[in-house]
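task queued by scheduler; priority normal; single chain, no ligands, no partner chains; default sampling; output format set to structure tokens
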Amino acid sequence: MNKKILLVLSALALCFCFILSACSPIGNNNNNQSDHENSDDDTYFTVTFDSQGGSAVESQSVLAGNPVTAPKSPTRENFDFDGWFRSADEDAAMWNFSTDRVNDNITLYAHWSRQNEEPPVQNETETLIYEPNEAGTGLIVKGDSGQAANIVIPAEHDNLPVVAIDDSAFAHSRHTSDILSVTIPDSVTEIGKNAFYSQQAIETVNIGSDSKLEKIGNNAFSGNYSLKSIYLPASLNVLGDSVFNNCGGLNTITVAEENTSFSGAGNCLIDLKTSTLIRGSNNSVIPDSVTKIGEAAFRRATLDTLTIPRSVTYIEKYAISDSAIKKIIYEGNAEEWAALMAASSKYWRNEDVEVVYSDTTESTLILVAYFSATGNTENVANSITAFVEGTLYEIEPQIPYSKEDLNYSDKSTRATREQNDPDARPEIADRVENMDEYDIIFLGYPIWWGSAPKIIYTFLESYDFSGKTIIPFCTSGSSGIGNSANSLHSLTEGANWLGGGSFYASTTQSAIRSWLDGLEY
């Protein structure tokens, strides 16, 4: 009895030790890595956005090793948004939404530059030169006789509103001393062409949120290399050519949300009517709404990497010329990039730019091959080709079938003899020269005496279909596809055959579409 008790207790002790060892984390198990180390885990991290006094931005859950999706820029009264940074410190590194990856829980901090405020210690520039407009209802600023470094234009002078800045009024050719800042009153409705042309030292252009500015002329701020930010009001509806050409120091582009002509989405200046990116900044994230990148859009920009969405269909000349951009991340594949380059100006970029593709999958090429004796199969093949955006190929016999050849009631006709001869292989007039490039083959034929015509056998024995997917379809007045396709499988070693479709001569487009939608290929 005592021996039995001892045996039971020993067994229980052994079981208890086994359970403890199975649960123990101690050992040399390679799976005992933290989530931070195991790149194969579906580990998600939280990215928090601290707007530092600006509007709230929702946090994101990001899969380890992936980039953060650039959020909508926050807003803060009297401040321009400079971008998201790794810390709140002034010298913190900026987060690059194109290249930086998330491997831990992080917080990104908004940095701001004060704007839309007139410097409190500055009064209007007393040496400005004015001229009445044609109607005599307002004044046009013609320039500054005092060559001031900080230009403050008043809303009113001699009891008349200041409504415009004249062509070349402060261009470097006239105002030869450096201008550091410009304050433009709400009363100004137009800035003339070349107004501040080649003023390389301008860092700040103050335009208020209540500004009535409607038009900015050609090259008005062209060559303002030091300009850090620009705000464009809701009233602006006309921008001339190259307004911000060579403004490579721009970090922030803000357009009033109420503006119906232009947008500042993604820190880009975008023409809403043409979906053209007119000017980019050093913090630009090009939105998918952009279809064209305009002339010199990123000229002299200091960012080193630019991500271009696949929505872009054209890039104009000098788009990134003289910039620091060394790498383009294209959100499509190599084939789509080649098409974009064929359509775009060949002078749009620097020669040493590296292009990488975020979509490395190759396009699936589809061939719709068919044999049709009476035209019924051809009609279905044409519909399939249109729906799947494939390439159409007709399997034409070297010797065409005559009406007499297709007399099914006569056992001596050509078609009848071929179908009754297991070795019959009618010759085909030509070949698919680039068959290796196709991944999916739709194969169409009429049903002859319950089977596929023997010319289909010839076609299948003429190529290597290894690794390709074959989807048969047939036309018939009464029979379905039946076993006609099954008898073809042995001719295509290594091919993947999917279930086929059968259609009548009267089959509708919607029926063909419905069949295609049900396929998984």
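post-processing summary
- The radius of gyration is 36 Å.
- Residues 81 and 112 are 5 Å apart (CA to CA).
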